[in-house]
Amino acid sequence: MVNRLHILGILALFFLSSQAWAEEKIARLRVGLDSDYPPFSFLNERGSHSGFDLDVAKALCESMACRCEFVYQPFDGLLETMRRGEIDLLMGVSDTAARRPYMDFSVPYFHARSIYIGRPGVLNLDSEAAMRVGVRAGTVQMIYVENYQSRRTTIIRGQFGRLLDMLCRGDLDMILANDLAAYIFLLSERGQEFDVLGEPLPLESFPSDVRVGVRKGAGKLRENVDMAIKNIRMDGTFGRINQDYFPYTLY
Amino acid sequence: MEREGMEQGHEARNLEPGQIAQNDALSWKHISIRRFLVFFVAVLLLFVLAVGLMFFMRLNSLQEISFEMEEQYLPGILNMQRTRDNIGVLRREAAVAYLATDPKQRRIARLKVQALVAESLFENSARITRLSRITQDLIQKLNTLRGRSEEAASRLHKAELRLASAIAPLRAASGSMRGGFSLGHDFRHVNGASKDADSEKFNGALQELEPLLRFCRNSDLDQTLRAHCTTFAEEMNAIRDSWLEKGEADRMAWATWTKLDNVLGRLGNAVSREEFMHARNGVNAMSELANSLWFNFYIVSAMLIVVVLFIAIVMYRHILAPISLAARELRHIRSGFPARPLPRVRIAELQQLLETVPGLSRYFTELSARSDRLEEEKAKYETLSMVDQLTGVGNRRAFDVRLEKSQCRAPNAVLMIDVDFFKKYNDAMGHQAGDTCLAAVAWAIRASLFRHGDALFRYGGEEFAVILENVRPDQAMVVAERILDNVRALRLPHPSSTASLHVTVSIGVAVSVDCRDISFMPELVAQADRALYRAKTEGRNRICLYKAEKDADISPDRSQKKPV
After folding, report:
1. CB distance from A187 to chain B under 8 Å?
2. Angstrom distance (rounded) from CA A193 to CA A191
3. pLDDT tens digits, one per residue of B472-530
4. How many CB atoms lie under 10 A from the CB of residue A94?
């Protein structure tokens, strides 16, 4: 009798502990963020990570009651990592057919358009001159530029922060980027010499909705992320983060 | 008997459907209880289903509206808020673009407006997109005008400096100290001043320089003064032009900004109105639904009550009432009253039950009649078994029963009678004649008994026994003598008898003295037997009365009687 009780107790303990362990394992999410993409994710003056996407990711984790660890990599690297299934969430991606085989997508959490920035008048230059266009590696903008490049265009792929440095140094003529990031640069001290070149690209050029990429097949997680996005929008968390980074309310 | 009853019931059941079909086929349709229940349950289910469906649909709409609330109204309100906020930003930035003197700030304002206008494509509202587009144009125009104004202002400034350098020597030469230059302009752009007012102001200022102009109109000026005069005139024109242009640009900028602010203000108002309408619609829909749910709740409750009542009524009318009717009627019949006509009921089984009730009454009466008859038959058979076939008098069993039954109310007498030399008679005359003789003797003995309670039994082969109730010994003797006489009077020839020529009997009489003795009757029989034995031994054809004290006292007084 006593023996049996002991065995039962040990079994129960084992069961409970394994359950708790499994839960903890599920609850710990790996979230991928671009390592150099102001103002979405960047190193601030004090050398610590900050940015809009990071704050949103933290809010989502809090809403889902999950513990998150953040993985900082260049965007194309993040896509690769996601393809290998080594991260659970990836902030700030658009839903494209090419990405769908290896990741799922949440509902969009904001929308953005794409613009060219550069020194004013650069487009009016002698058309014989070769254009050096910077794009974030791996993004929909890169694919767009690759598809529409002319012979005279040189595409420079890199991280957004580095592209901005190149633009300031004159190593680039223009950058095609998400307008939010571009405007924040233009409004900054360094961006004073630069301006928007032409009109924003038309909406139908490529997806303008920005989503959270979710590890393929993690349906439950995707639902949770959707719910969390809805929650942080409703409870004002998203609006507060928005205010911290952008001069107007995001769409 | 039970079988017969069942058969009768069966017969009745077989009969009924035909009758019913004939009588009531049109007015009254019977259904079996199973069908009734199925029908009943089906109706109930349909009803409950309908009610449930109604309620479910309401609940569904509740779910829908809460879903709508979550999916449409709340995000809608958020979107409206965002739009309103962004319009506020546009308005603020427009003001900055108009008011800021710092071109950097104006650039920032322009960039923000530009960004917002680009993003406004996501509004999904043609009106907002169009207005954003207008806003962008107006901001662009405002910027241009502000640039023009600033250029004019800087031209004005330069012209003023040059004018000042020209005025000083002219003043010195003319010696006029009056008419200091006081256009009174500043770098702040004019707000709301009209073009005419500007010109007037300029002309007023020009008036003050009139002495200098007059001085320049003198023809006797030297080369230097003439050059100064030319500069003076030129710069005055330049000042006038730039000043007017600056005023023009400022006025246009002001007008543009006012228009812009108006547009944005109107848009903001429209959006907040829409936002309120949106919220109110949601709340209205909710409260409407809540009201209708209440109403529905009442209706459903009422319907459920109706259902319960319906069940109760149907159950009572079609099941309980017939059963209690049958029970009442059965009680009625059992009390012996005749069956009454019963009303018809809907359910076939219950109708059959009710229809067996009158049948039962019939059956009851028949049963009692039959049992009476049976009782009679039984009595008859009982009598038969107690009667001697040959003589028709009670047999030995009857005699025993009578002995048991006889009560000790009064003195009883037992007469034992034996046909004298019956064996010889039988041998001589044959058994047939023997039988006839016995029957005749029995008849003769019975004819001697006058009272109702006196009974004759055939005791054995040729022996008879008579029981007389409530007699004294002398009375018993009288009866015995009558028997003796009656048998003699038969005159049946008996050639082998030694006592007489005809058939005679010997009689032993015993009369009870004390009937309290339990065994008195068998005892009495034994006494009578003994007396009979005496009579036989004394020569037959005589009577002997048993006397307890003395055997000799048995009276032989009639024994002397000789055959006639």
Report:
1. yes
2. 6
3. 888 889 999 999 999 999 888 888 888 888 899 999 998 887 666 556 678 888 888 99
4. 20
- Per-residue pLDDT of B291-349, as tens digits, reads 888 888 888 888 889 888 988 898 888 888 888 888 888 888 877 777 777 778 777 88
Q: Do A233 and B75 touch (CB under 8 A)?
A: yes
The encoded tokens of residue B32 equal 């079996």
Determine, yes or no, domain membership for B475: yes
Total structural domains in chain A?
Answer: 2
Query: What integer pLDDT is reported at residue B28 of this predicted model?
Result: 60
Tokens of A229: 């996005």
CB contact under 8 Å between B119 and A233, yes or no, is no
Residue A1, domain member (yes or no): no
- The answer on A223 and A190 residing in a single domain is no
> Which residue's structure tokens are 């109105």?
B273
Report chain B's terminal Cα–Cα distance, integer Å: 62
Classify residue B473: in a domain, yes or no. yes
- DSSP state string for B351-369: HHHHHHHHHHHHHHHHHHH
- The per-residue pLDDT for B188 is 44
Verify whether the Cβ–Cβ distance A187 to B86 is below 8 Å: no
Q: Parallel, antiparallel, or unpaired: how do β-strands B413-419 and B463-468 relate?
A: antiparallel
Q: Mark yes or no for CB contact A248/B118 under 8 Å.
A: no
The residue count for chain B: 564
Question: E strand or H helix at B417, and its extent?
Answer: strand B413-419
Decide if A89 touches B, using CB distance below 8 A.
Answer: no
Furthest-apart CA pair in chain B: how many Å? 234
Structure tokens at A211: 């989503």
DSSP class of residue B190 equals: P
**Each residue's pLDDT tens digit, B529-555:** 999 999 889 888 899 988 765 444 445
Let me know if B553 is exposed, middle or buried by CB neighbors in 10 A (0-12, 13-18, 19+): exposed
**Residue A210 CA: distances (Å) to CA of A203, B81, B343, B424:** 13, 21, 83, 149
pLDDT at B410 over 80: no
Give the domain range for residue A52: 28-111+208-245
Give the rounded percent of residues in chain B with a pLDDT score beyond 70: 85
Query: What CA–CA distance (Å, rounded) separates B20 from B30?
Result: 9
Does B10 fall in a domain?
no
Q: How many angstroms separate the CA of residue B251 from the nearest CA in chain A?
A: 28
How many degrees, rounded to 5, is the angle at CA B496 between CA B491 and CA B498? 85
- End-to-end Cα separation, chain A, in angstroms: 67
Q: Are B464 and B399 in contact (CB under 8 A)?
A: no
Which ipTM value was assigned to this complex? 0.80
